Amino acid sequence: MRLAILGGSFNPVHLGHLFLADGVISAFGYDRVIMIPTFQSPFKPGAQITPPEDRLDMLAASITADPRLTVDPCEIRRQGVSYTIDTLGDIERRYLPQGKPGLILGDDLARDFPKWKKAREIAERSDIIIAHRISAGELPFPFPHKRLQNEIMDLSSGVVRDRIRQGESWRYLVPPGVRFLIEDRGLYGVKSPPPPEVLPGGEGISPQRVSWEFIGVVETLVRSKLTPGRFLHSRNTALLTHDICLRFHLDAVAGYLAGIAHDMAKSLPEDELIRLVGNDGQGISPMEHKKPSLLHARAAAVLLKDRFGVHNEGVLEAVRLHTTGDMSMGPLAKAVFIADKIEPSREEVDPRLRDLRRYQDLDELFTAAVDETVVYLSSRNVEISESTRRLLAVIHKKGM
Ligand SMILES: [Fe+2]
Ligand SMILES: [Fe+2]
Question: Which of 101, 162, 192, 263 counts the most CB atoms within 10 A of its CB?
Answer without folding.
Answer: 263
